[in-house]
Amino acid sequence: MAGQSKRLYIGPRLRRIRRELGLTQAQMAADLDVSPSYVTLIERNQRPLPADLLLRLAETYELELSAFSAGEDETLALLEAALADPIFQELSVGRDDVRDLLSSNPAMGDAVAALYQAHRSSQAAVIEARATGQSGPADPLEEAREYISEARNYFPALEEVGEETARALSANNHNLFDALADRFKKKHSLTLRVLPADIMVGAYRRHDRHRAQIAISEALDQASRTFQAALQLVLFEQGKLLDETVNTAAFESDAGRRLARAALANYAAGAIIFPYSIFHQSVQELHYDIEALARRYGASFEQVCHRLTTLQQPGKEGIPFFFLRIDAAGNVSKRFSGGVFPFARYGGSCPLWNIHETFRLPRRIITQTVQLPDGDSYFSIARTVHGGEGGFAAPKAERAVALGCDIKHAGKLIYGRDIDLEAATPTPVGVTCRLCPRPACAARAHPPVERRIIIDEHRRMATPFSFAFD
Questions:
Q1: What is the DSSP track for 315-334?
Q2: Reduced to 3 states, what is the DSSP secondary structure of residue 135?
Q3: Which contacts of 388-394 are long-range, i.e. CB under 8 A and separated by 24 or more positions?
Q4: Count H helices, E strands: the chain?
Q5: CA dist 102 to 14, 41, 94, 98, 379, Å?
Q6: Contact 280, 159 (CB under 8 A)
Q7: E-assigned strands of 212-273?
Q8: Using one digit for the tens of pLDDT, what is the confidence trace for 198-215?
């Protein structure tokens, strides 16, 4: 009917919000003064969500109205990317068709988007396995990374406990490290001590049961000492929650599950050091200035970068970032994507990405706009960070980290303010040489998989390899 308001079917999103709040359908129904069966029908998209009930939901649970549309733009982008795939070339499906699907059946839209992501991930995994000779048992590290990625690097239960712990610690009016020491003493009868590196015998942190103490190496800087103390507190106090969270997924190997649990423990420590609501507010005030955030929270550059990748609370989201850490040889030691950027599982990163340039300009932040072969553009910042022990002649690890986002978010960053993003020509990069189809790349180290190499002894091209697209 003309002029009639559009019906709102948001069943899957309502279900996710309810679960994140830790409520049953009966509890939510009682809060909203409706029947449990009515909540069930709305969650199954068999009834639309009326405007008055939407407002009641937002007021009752102190939610922003944007929480009920969270993820729709992302799903729309994924579906459009799926329909741009060559396998759909003969189908005449447009943007309006995609919006109709999301409007009438968002659960099916989410399902199709997830299916396409799984298809693309499996396709890349097969190609990479062929290219690198990877076979045999599951890779535990990749299992753990996939688990974090599928959760979009956001775990609401850990966030909630992290904020509660941070509030309790701040009530003591100490700096965080001293507050952690007090909590160990009062709640666990343990002393938190900083000990010389030679006594620690190579360890950064150790629970000494005999002496009833938690020992932290003085070789660490203060930010790392605080993180290690917070991590140990998480292991003592959140062990059951860590198990419950990680056991929601099926792992092929016990090592994969244990690595994922360790990643969750690190996540929970970050949630204590950077309580979500306060940190999110700081991020907005400082426009994602990583060095300023590090000073405000007494943290390291890398710790802040990690935390920025986790800001996915519905209604209070941050920019969806991806994160990468490499060494001078290009080996990838950490990466977080959450579907934001299509990292390769094996092999190094593209040599045209300026994260590699940071080793020539230590401690200096450099920016870059890049574009993948599929046309998607991103904005990234990169800087070197130090790892290892302090002191003269002590072994140190020089690494570089990069934090990036879709180009549409770059204007929100303090790093993108003085850059004309519309006029800037992005650097053409690939995920990794084995998966990059760009024909004219002088930096290429390997030919792309599934491309026929052309060998002509009487002609030397500027690029290392020539290949056909048939």
A1: TS-----EEEEEETT--EEE
A2: coil
A3: 389/197, 389/217, 389/219, 389/220, 390/219, 390/220, 390/221, 391/197, 391/219, 394/219
A4: 17, 11
A5: 15, 18, 13, 6, 28
A6: no
A7: 213-217
A8: 898 888 999 999 999 999
pLDDT, greater one: 438 or 334: 334
| β-strand pairing of 377-388 with 466-468 | unpaired
Give the helix/strand (H/E) hosting 120: helix 106-132
Which residues are bridge partners to 466 per DSSP? 454
Contact 192, 216 (CB under 8 A): yes
Alpha helices, DSSP H, located in 33-105: 36-43, 51-60, 72-83, 95-104
Short-list 330, 284, 286, 336, CA closest to 306: 336
**Pairing between β-strand 332-336 and β-strand 366-371 as defined by DSSP bridges:** unpaired
Q: 406 forms bridges with which residues in the sheet?
A: 378
Over the stretch 131-160, which tens digit does the pLDDT of each residue have? 555 555 568 888 998 899 888 899 999 999
Q: Which two tokens stand for residue 319?
A: 């920019």
Give dist(CA 15, CA 9) in Å, integer: 12
What average pLDDT score do residues 47-55 get?
A: 85
In DSSP terms, which residues pair with 191 in a beta bridge?
213
pLDDT at 217: 94
DSSP H/E element including 208: strand 205-208
Judge whether residue 354 has pLDDT over 70.
yes
Residues β-bridged to residue 397: 387
pLDDT over 90 (residue 297): yes
